[in-house]
Amino acid sequence: MREITRDVIVVGAGAAGLTAANELRKAGLSVAVLEARDRVGGRLWTDVVDGATLEIGGQWVSPDQDALIDTVAELGLETYSRYRDGESVYIGPDGTRTRFTGDAFPVAESTARVIAGITERLDAMVAEIDPDRPWAHPNAADWDTVSWDAWLRAQTDDDEAVRNLAFATGSAMLTKPAHAFSLLQSLLMAASAGSYSNLVDADFILDKRVVGGLQQVPLLLAERLGEDVLREQPVRTLTWDDSAVTATADGVTVHARRAVLALAPVLYERISFVPALPRLQQQMHQHISMGFVIKVHAVYDRPFWREQGLSGTAFSPYELAHEAYDNTNHGDDRGTLVGFVSDRHADEVFRLSAEERRERILDSLSHYYGPEAKEPLVYYESDWGSEEWTRGAYAASFDLGGLHRYGADLRSPVGPIRFACSDLAGAGYQHVDGAIRMGRLVADQIVAELRA
Hints:
By secondary structure, this protein is of the alpha/beta class. It contains 16 helices and 23 strands. It has a 7-stranded mixed beta sheet. It is globular, with a radius of gyration of 22 Å. It holds the Pfam family Amino_oxidase.
């Protein structure tokens, strides 16, 4: 077993861990990054499948994500806008397909008024939320003990309005059923994007992509660290006291003064802590879970929907694929659609055979785009729920009542151990932007401590 000594151990070579490691290195501290996978990037993964380049993990850059935008520019990467020319498609409760332009779904006027009124109310509530301290709001306890679905249904008996309002933070972002998380958790999700209106605006939240793929961010950050990034080294044991920590992985033991756990909280249990983490952390981590979504990639010989005057943007809370977009790569003559199947729908189709699942999902896409959608050249499902070192998508969130009960302690240090990942972020929560912010934050804290 190889033994090395560093100032800081970073567990996890995703955007948070690699950002932290680079910031620590800039400050003159030595680091070792231990990554369980055979690649860097965590939930960012750009790969070639059957000759098609696919963003298997995260991919979007929003205009408010300053930390990510600055990092992309500093690394010399370029971005391009998601294709959005033409009309969008909405499918209503009776299966009627409607083409439309603008942000508002083409629903009945009465439903549109309800959606607008509740959206205005939510924007006002979100404006009062500090995304770094949502539990500090005077109504936090009340808002955290009512489910997102129950709160919405208390506002209106218009089911179509409820479904359209619920899916923005439910199926689309937290990727859990709307009854499974709280109003406060939903408000945090919206506050992390600046407002509820931002969160439901596809042209805002899904604005740009990185030419060549977003995984280039962690790849280039790892390149700067060279041999200090050790792949295929899952940490099995973390032994710690107040002043030091030792990580034992499969092929290396690292001694350090500090450690950063830069992985999703649901994975902490994969590490044996000696001594065990305090009772508070043990309890808290049992109230956090990942959502689940299938990201579906369908590649065609051309973006045929554009010939129909469609942007590729499609929504329906009644469809198996509840949303879909033109995901054609920069400079690619082929056309790519990306669709999403979330929470209970994802559970249901994974009970089918691969062939049946493919048929069901493509049939849903055909409801938006027509029969050509059923015949892709390349078809691929990103299934992060079965990925050993992720266990879900997109990120972790609390169960009912968990956020106000434990949120203030999520980032609390334990001896020499610090925590950093997008799941713990305020601004940029669940996004690469939040991961970068958290990496910078813990690096600054550690530098200040070790230089004191």
